[in-house]
Amino acid sequence: MKKLKLFTDIEESYRELVYKVSWPTKSQLASSTILVMIASIVIALVILCMDQVIDTIMHFIYSI
Questions:
Q1: Taking Cα atoms as reference points, which of 29, 12, 32, 10 lies closest to residue 20?
Q2: Alpha-carbon span 3 to 9, nearest angstrom
Q3: pLDDT tens, 32-51?
Q4: What counts of helices (H) and strands (E) characterise the chain?
Q5: What is residue 4's DSSP assignment?
Q6: pLDDT top residue among 2 and 26
Q7: CA 16 to chain centre
Q8: Residue 16 to residues 3, 8, 11, 35, 64: CA-CA distances in angstroms?
Q9: Diameter of the chain by CA atoms?
């Protein structure tokens, strides 16, 4: 009996995850996590600054 394509795909995905994927070490994972957190904070601060500048400009325009 022929296997369903779904089961074949699941088996192939499992084999790829177990034998072909190179997983990062704990130290690599930790450093990547810290980098992503710092980048997220920097981007959030840039967006906050842009929002404050636009808010100030809009208040100035509407007060005229």
A1: 12
A2: 10
A3: 999 999 999 999 999 999 99
A4: 2, 0
A5: P
A6: 26
A7: 23
A8: 19, 12, 9, 28, 64
A9: 79
**42 token code pair:** 């920097």
Q: Alpha-carbon distance 58 to 54, whole Å?
A: 6
List % helix, strand, coil for the chain (3-state, nearest 5): 85, 0, 15
Place of tokens 């100035």: 60
pLDDT in tens, 6-32: 899 999 999 999 999 888 999 999 999
Give residue for tokens 């400009």: 57
